[in-house]
TrEMBL record:
Transmembrane regions listed in the UniProt entry: 56-80, 133-153, 159-179, 236-259, 271-292
GO molecular function, one term: ATP hydrolysis activity
Annotated stretches, region: Disordered: 314-333
Species assigned in the record: Streptomyces montanisoli
Membrane topology designation: Multi-pass membrane protein
Chief place of localization: membrane
Domain ABC transporter residues, every copy: 341-576
Family annotation (Gene3D superfamilies): ABC transporter type 1, transmembrane domain, P-loop containing nucleotide triphosphate hydrolases
Entry protein name: ABC transporter ATP-binding protein
Location of the protein in the cell: Cell membrane
Length: 580
């Protein structure tokens, strides 16, 4: 799988050269029109005063005004199109990249912060086009034309003015550095508040049930205040550009008046040229300000782009097999053809923690039949499943799936060989049909979907949904917790993978559905390896093989009845579960 290409602003902006050229030309045309209309009006007034006919001049003025407005509209539309295309491309690339990042990285960054990348960050990048690109060419042209006229009138006064503006430019260049740093800080703070808010929304029922709205609001308002304070610094920096520029203009004016007066007293400068020069100098402020604002936006765009590129440079999950991974040459010789999963002295410590979640753990899961993984809370059961799916890789030791090291498997093939039902991420916010066939490359026949739904007792519930199989669940319409889990089980039934991995799937099932679940598991385990993190006695009892963990290590493994007799911790766990 290839890494996402870094964003380059120039390439993004010039990706549609024809539209860009036309939009810039029409922008210039509109500016020229705006400049011509006052001149034509001036001529109309002069001709009327002299008693000459002005019919054609009036028609001309209307045509120029209309053409100028149309050119302005056209230019704005084309730039907006370029901006929308850019935002679209970046959004798609960033979303695709995020989906392919390692699970641990996504969890560390947080859903809210990552979401803000495709909302506020992309919009900020768009301002490069909306503000920077729309204003800068016209302003640059106006500045260049004015400076040329000023130099033509008097080069010494132009040099004096240029010297003052150069000093202003250096001051503003420093401010741009702070503006850029502030823009990064603002985006990070916005990502932070988005992350916090979205995690609070995930816990909304707990917040409401505990009456914690006020506490959470206070917490969020502190975050919002931090964003406000950082934003305020940015506003001060932006606002400070105006007085710096206005001050520069005043200094330039005083210097020009001083030097101009000396020149006039020596007779080397006429009053008319001096007045024209001063008028140009006064007119220069607006386009120069627009130019600086445009540069400011470009710097901010640059900062946002760098943030995107840091994210895009984060390595995706490696699809291919990794060097050094163990792929048994003769699985039969190693006895691996009869194993579904093997853990061989596996150790794993979560980043940022000191205590290993698993240490030197070894066990094996047969190729066929039901194996359950049990152990007290925090024993390492979910970590085992993460390693089987290669959501993360062991620090030491080897995890073998169907005879090959998980690191040697191409990732898509590994995950294509496993059906994974996880308690917290059971379903997608998508239609029932999509949820059932998410692992299939081709459409699953409708009959097969209904058959699977019948096996988990969901026929009536799905038929009752507003659009049946095509109802999108997870938003306006939803199923109960237990129904969602059964739908996930139906997905497992529809799969033809050699391995089925289930994480505590019975926690929300009632008695009848638990029986149904057992039947499904038995059916599945006749032909494949079913590996279940089990909390229910019923699941454990029907398992051919039980693996017990504690503190990240193996306590014992064997048939349920044998463990009950020989393994004291297992007996204790069993008794505790029976009581609960
Ligand atoms: N993302 C994580 N970051 C840091 N430590 C973690 C993370 N996930 C789990 N742990 C730690 O690793 C150990 C094993 O956790 P794991 O979730 O695998 O246990 P478990 O047996 O599935 O527990 P439970 O039955 O309560 O779900 C625990 O000590 C836990 O605190």
């Amino acid at each position: 799988m290839t890494q996402t290409t870094a964003i380059r602003l120039r390439r993004e902006i010039t990706r549609h050269p024809a539209a860009l050229t036309v939009s810039l030309l029409t922008g210039l045309l509109s500016t020229a029109g705006s400049l011509a209309v006052p001149l034509i009006t001036r001529q109309v007034i002069a001709d009327v005063s002299a008693g000459r006919s002005v019919n054609w001049l009036i028609v001309g003025a209307f045509v120029v005004a209309l053409a100028s407005s149309a050119a302005q509209g056209g230019s704005a539309y084309l730039l907006a199109r370029i901006g929308s295309h850019m935002v679209y491309r970046i959004r798609v690339a960033v979303m695709g990249h995020i989906l392919r990042l390692p699970v641990q990285h996504i969890r560390t960054e947080g859903a809210g912060a990552l979401t803000s990348r495709i909302t506020s960050d992309t919009l900020m990048l768009r301002q490069v086009i909306d503000v920077g690109l729309a204003q800068m060419p016209v302003s640059a042209l106006l500045v260049a034309a004015s400076v040329a006229a000023m130099a033509w009138l008097n080069w010494l006064l132009t040099l004096v003015s240029a010297g003052v503006f150069a000093a202003v430019g250096i001051a503003i260049a420093f401010m741009f550095k702070w503006i850029k740093a502030n823009a990064i800080e603002q985006q990070q703070a916005l990502g932070g508040i988005a992350g916090r808010f979205s995690s609070h929304l995930d816990a909304i029922t707990t917040i409401k049930a505990s009456g914690a709205e006020d506490t959470v609001e206070q917490d969020l308002s502190q975050e919002a205040d931090r964003v406000r304070r950082i934003g305020l610094t940015g506003d001060v920096l932006q606002a400070a550009m105006l007085p710096v520029l206005a001050g520069g203009q005043q200094v330039a004016l005083v210097a020009v008046i001083l030097v101009g007066s000396v020149q006039m007293s020596h007779g080397t400068l006429s009053v008319a040229s001096f007045s024209a020069f001063v008028l140009y100098l006064l007119q220069l402020a607006a386009p120069v300000m627009l130019l600086f604002t445009g540069f400011g936006r470009l710097r901010i765009g640059q900062a946002v782009k760098e943030r995107f590129n840091t994210l895009l440079a984060t390595p995706r999950e490696q699809d291919g097999g990794q060097p050094g991974a163990r792929r048994p040459e003769t699985p039969e010789a190693a006895g691996l053809d009869t194993t579904g999963i093997v853990f061989d002295k596996v150790s794993y410590t979560y980043p940022g923690t000191a205590q290993p979640a698993l240490s030197e753990l070894s066990f094996s899961v047969p190729r066929h039949g039901l194996t359950t993984l049990v152990g007290p809370s925090g024993a390492g059961k979910s970590t085992v499943l993460s390693l089987v799916e290669r959501f993360t890789s062991p620090d030491e030791g080897h995890v073998l799936v169907l005879g090959s090291d998980v690191d040697a498997w191409p990732l898509s093939e590994l995950r294509g060989s496993i059906t994974y039902v996880d308690q917290s991420f059971t379903l997608l916010q998508a239609s029932v049909r999509q949820n059932l066939s998410v692992q299939h490359k081709q459409a699953v026949p409708e009959g097969a979907l209904w058959e699977a739904l019948a096996s988990v007792g969901l026929t009536a519930a799905v038929k009752a949904l507003p659009d049946g199989l095509d109802t999108v669940i997870g938003a306006e319409t939803d199923l109960s917790g237990g129904q969602r889990q059964r739908l996930a089980l139906a997905r497992a039934l529809l799969s033809d993978t050699e391995l089925v991995v289930l994480d505590e799937p019975t926690s929300q099932l009632d008695g009848i559905n638990e029986d149904r679940f057992r039947t499904i598991i038995e059916e599945l385990s006749r032909t494949r390896a079913v590996f279940v993190v089990a909390h229910r006695l019923s699941t454990v009892r029907s398992a051919q093989h039980v693996i017990m963990l504690d503190g990240g290590g193996l306590v014992d493994e064997g048939p349920h009845d044998v463990l009950l007799k020989t393994c004291e911790p297992y007996r204790e766990l069993h008794t505790a579960q029976a009581l609960s």
